[in-house]
Write a structure and sequence with these properties.
154 residues; alpha+beta; 8-stranded mixed beta sheet
Length: 154
């Protein structure tokens, strides 16, 4: 079977939303907790949609849960499609316009931050390991003016 056929027959599709907070050429990112420490990569805040939840409502909920900050959501920047061997993921990455509000995130004031996040802050994705890897190749200063792309890893 092709990967595409495998996805259609056995994998569950999970839709996630993620916020791209960019300031001075750096990106707000998180290292997530694992059972024995933390992930070995940085990622943008966000997560899985609830059943019947819209993309924008889900992104706002996730940003508040993980950062305590109400996001000013801008345009859709890019999408990513991949599978992890068990599930297929379709991720939507949105511009977040109020980057200054993410300078002093207090995880203790969030519902999920302390449970899920080990480290957070503005990082340089060209120096740090970030997933998806395509982020390290983006022109962060001009993200909002670029066309939407789909990065597919199926």
């Amino acid at each position: 079977h092709s990967i595409y056929e495998r996805v259609l027959t056995s994998m569950k599709r999970i839709i996630t939303v993620r916020g791209m907070v960019i300031k001075d050429g750096k990106m707000y990112a998180q290292r997530l907790k694992t059972g024995d420490g933390e992930n070995d990569f940085w990622c943008t805040p966000g997560g899985k949609l609830d059943e019947h939840e819209s993309l924008l409502d889900g992104l706002q909920r996730e940003m508040i849960e993980e950062t305590g900050v109400r996001a000013e959501i801008g345009k859709l920047l890019f999408m990513q499609q991949f599978d992890d061997g068990e599930n297929e993921f379709l991720e939507f990455f949105y511009e977040i316009k109020n980057a200054d509000d993410y300078e002093h995130v207090d995880l203790s004031a969030t519902t999920h931050g302390e449970l899920e996040v080990s480290r957070h802050g503005f990082i340089d994705p060209k120096v740090e390991r970030v997933l998806p890897e395509c982020i390290s190749e983006l022109d962060l200063e001009n993200l909002g003016s670029q066309d939407v792309s789909l990065f597919s890893y199926l």
